[in-house]
Amino acid sequence: xxxxxxxxxxxYFESVESLVxxxxxxxxxxxxxxxxxxxLRPDLYRHWAKTIVDDVVIFSIDPHLPSLRQSTAxxxxxxxxxxxxxxxxxxxxxxxxMVVEHLAEPELVLREVFRVLSPxxxxxxxxxxxxxxxxxxxxxxxxxxxxxxxxxxxxGRKAEDVFPTLYRxxxxxxxxxxxxxxxxxxxxxxxxxxxxxxxxxxxFVFFELVIIRLFSGERFASWRPDIICLLRK
Length: 233
Prior knowledge:
By secondary structure, this protein is α/β, with parallel strands linked by helices. It contains eight helices and seven strands. It has one domain: Rossmann fold.
């Protein structure tokens, strides 16, 4: 029904790969346990692990120390993105994979990212799209309920790895507004599909796939579940 459907994580890391060149410095904000999630297709994981991790220097910051202790980045620092503990203009690429939705002060974070990026550097964002109807519903649910529901929908994810979400920069227009205030130029914004949310619920996934197929046209693009965006300094 949807043979073209892939996880947005695959699309995100293809974007990362397109930006990588040997010996660049990457700062991963909210990097948590891994820069590359191992649950991706094994062939892609092996390829990216060799192409990206071996050819660049990856720094990671995250305020959650237990996650950071398991990180696969080269250099890990326990810190918040509102106060990045690095000198100005030293990174070529900053990434935020499913992090923006958690930010209380996204403009302050973007100002810090702008500061640490070298001239011409890029900020790659992967985040949920608040215009996606289930995401609008998710925003209204209490965090305690999400800690129960999310591990069911995302098999293998632990409740302690479900963090509070605020969705303060989770539409194309919101990103554009904050980016303009800071001084970033939007290079591109892609609204993308991802793996079905109900894939762990057996036959219920059929109905979600029908909806995805019905709304796959470009006129419905702004309602897709995830956003991948590239900002340029």
